[in-house]
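INFO batch 0412 | record 1 of 1 | parsing
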Amino acid sequence: MFSNTNGIEIKRIVVPPFPENVYILSSDTTDECIVVDPGAEADRIAFEVNNLGKKIRYILNTHGHGDHTAAVAKLVDITKAEFALHEADLGILNNGSEWLEQVIPNYLPAPDPNFYLIQDQLIRLGKLTIKIIHTPGHTPGGVCFLVEDVIFSGDTLFNESIGRYDLPGGDGVQLLESIRTKLMVLPENMIVLPGHGGETTISHEKQYNPFLQN
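INFO prediction complete | emitting tokens
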């Protein structure tokens, strides 16, 4: 659990099979919360939310790949939360469903979004203010979520690595441009919480990420 002095809390849940990071964002001024990238185990995510004394208002996805969306349908069904992602990823949402059914237990295709995420959009819930940063490259509609001194980078930026760009809709040049012009300009002490693996900082990635050294 990550928390700050403003009463904002972030809980990470790692779900199989890849593994993938799911984040629960909440504040002390509302009983509602936000879930980022629910990639599997909807019942477990709902259980953890309930343990926090919260209910899900929004499900926000950094992109449309199935390892980040496989639990969306069930969570929407049991919580009536609103689901959102960038419109440019509609073309890849639910791609590969037959394969995902084999590797993710109880996989269900994601529903149509309730609304779309756009560059510089602000989503507010209690003390939480989430700014949407469009970072295409891993996917056309890839986004990152900026919350105070934390950036949720999805599959755009990892600890000493970057997202794949060899999948449909990927573009390596665009991905590096997104990272350099939209993420590396953030404060160096900014905490980066990626879609896979451990956390890092902007400063660490500037110094040690081999993809960003030229």
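INFO post-check: The chain has one domain: 2-212.
INFO record closed
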